[in-house]
């Protein structure tokens, strides 16, 4: 599972500053997608080969009024689902009553806590951090988030507290893993039942009320699949639980495990801001994506046009994604999903040889030269594959740090076209000698 680090603390202690500092390198990877609104709450930290999910819980205060119920619920869920909590306090303010209240709450939670004393820049960090021993949360780490000072100590703590566990899922060979994701009531359970066929419905009802995603292996025409059902095995009668049980973190963990994500939208409601946010996170995860416009049945032509326009406007950063109107309830469009999933899987997992990639690079350069920087032309020499799911192309050259976003985007689209990739994002990584 994608390990989760929850960042908690009073307002203004520096949580978002640290969040931005830690997630910056990831941001660079997706910066070239126009129209993408960055989610300032869920971000990724790369530690060696693996990613961790960092969740900024926002300011915890006594007055919870004005905070919408959904956001508040997600904070609770983040704490419940966290593997490690970073509890941040402000060195300049010293210890205060709200810190103590949060510390109490965290002790009850019983998760590993790292006490982070921020803003130690320009002050004697040892003296200040000592004050915070009384919170009884272990040794405080003094940092300055604005400068990144001592942040590496924090990262080392992540490695200590989040031991690498073997991934059973990968070992069992899931075949093609499909995550069914979307907000509550968009039709995820209905689609899962529809994809599996009616005989499987029974299995669902036995399930009870676990909050985790459910992994359902099955075979179709000799191909192995695993459905990752984020709606969980929910009982039909307990509809009131739906909203409570929706967890962005669980959705992200399911997305991480998937080869292909089917993100469902309730076409009657159109695309909400929450949809756009979660879809931004799907892009960050680099997964092949089908946007299922569900409940297409019974919509009039005008409304259908409206939804299509909305997609163009709000989801311009997902140009690569496949969009499919479906009705999970009636089954229209659903049968075709398997073929689409297959195509996307092949794209996400494609093998690309070094000569092929280098030839595409040469053609791209010939068609449109990189710009001059300081009178010198940026050089790109060769390319090779750096990963799958999503496909990663590593490009070697000189001065690649100075490549403008527009040129990177040009290359990205050129590679995608030439490689005939469908439904998956592609990542370009630029390397040049120091
Ligand atoms: P949040 O409400 O906890 O997310 O806090 P912010 O990240 O918005 O930071 C609140 C204020 O503290 C901002 O004005 C930051 O510039 C400042 N700040 C954050 N980290 C540091 C730091 O390491 N040193 C100093 N001196 N100021 C900081
Ligand atoms: P989930 O919370 O995302 O798992 O959503 P459900 O599968 O429980 O569906 C929520 C509601 O939407 C139920 O009443 C479904 O019958 C209804 N629903 C699901 N798919 C469709 C569809 O394609 N068309 C229509 N009209 N209703 C649907």
UniProtKB/TrEMBL annotation:
SUPFAM superfamilies xref list: P-loop containing nucleoside triphosphate hydrolases
Described function: GTPase that plays an essential role in the late steps of ribosome biogenesis.
Binding annotation for GTP 2: 182-189, 229-233, 294-297
Protein name per Swiss-Prot or TrEMBL: GTPase Der
Key word Ribosomal protein present: no
Family note: Belongs to the TRAFAC class TrmE-Era-EngA-EngB-Septin-like GTPase superfamily. EngA (Der) GTPase family.
UniProt keywords, alphabetically: GTP-binding, Nucleotide-binding, Repeat, Ribosome biogenesis
Signal peptide stretch: none
Domain EngA-type G residue range list: 3-166, 176-349
Quaternary assembly: Associates with the 50S ribosomal subunit.
Binding site for GTP 1: 9-16, 56-60, 118-121
């Amino acid at each position: 599972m994608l390990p989760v680090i929850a960042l908690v603390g009073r307002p203004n202690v520096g949580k978002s500053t640290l969040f931005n500092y830690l997630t910056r390198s990831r941001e660079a990877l997706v910066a070239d997608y126009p129209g993408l609104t960055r989610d300032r709450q869920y971000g990724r930290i790369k530690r060696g080969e693996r990613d961790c999910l960092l969740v900024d819980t926002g300011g915890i205060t006594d007055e919870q009024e004005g905070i919408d119920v959904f956001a508040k619920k997600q904070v609770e869920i983040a704490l419940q689902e966290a593997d490690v909590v970073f509890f941040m306090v402000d060195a300049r303010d010293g210890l205060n009553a709200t810190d103590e209240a949060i510390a109490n709450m965290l002790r009850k939670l019983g998760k590993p806590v790292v006490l982070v004393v921020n803003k130690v820049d320009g002050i004697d960090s040892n003296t200040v951090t000592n004050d915070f021993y009384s919170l009884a949360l272990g040794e405080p780490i003094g940092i300055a988030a604005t400068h990144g000072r001592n942040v590496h100590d924090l990262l080392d703590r992540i490695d200590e507290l989040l031991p690498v566990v073997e991934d059973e899922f990968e070992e069992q060979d899931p075949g093609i893993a499909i995550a069914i994701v979307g907000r509550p009531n968009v039709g995820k359970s209905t689609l899962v039942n529809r994809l599996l066929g009616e005989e499987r419905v029974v299995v669902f009802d036995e399930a009870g009320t676990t909050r985790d995603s459910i992994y359902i292996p099955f075979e179709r025409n000799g191909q192995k699949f695993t459905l990752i059902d984020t709606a969980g095995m929910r009982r039909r009668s307990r509809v009131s639980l739906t909203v409570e049980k929706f967890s962005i973190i669980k959705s992200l963990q399911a997305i991480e495990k998937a080869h292909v994500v089917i993100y469902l939208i309730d076409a009657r409601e159109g695309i909400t801001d929450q949809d756009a946010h979660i879809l931004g996170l799907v892009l960050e995860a680099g997964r092949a994506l089908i946007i299922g416009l569900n409940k297409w049945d019974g919509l009039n032509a005008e409304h259908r046009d409206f939804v299509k326009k909305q997609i163009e406007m709000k989801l311009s950063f997902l140009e690569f994604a496949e969009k499919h109107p479906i009705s999970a309830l009636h089954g229209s469009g659903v049968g075709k999903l398997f073929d689409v999933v297959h195509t996307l899987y092949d794209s996400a997992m494609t093998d690309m040889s070094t000569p092929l990639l280098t030839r595409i690079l040469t053609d791209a350069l010939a068609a449109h030269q990189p710009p001059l920087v300081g009178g010198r032309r940026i050089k790109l020499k060769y390319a090779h594959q750096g990963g799958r799911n999503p496909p990663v192309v590593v490009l070697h050259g000189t001065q690649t740090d100075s490549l403008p976003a527009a040129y990177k985007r040009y290359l990205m689209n050129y590679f995608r076209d030439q490689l005939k990739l469908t439904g998956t994002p592609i990542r370009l990584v630029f390397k040049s000698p120091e």
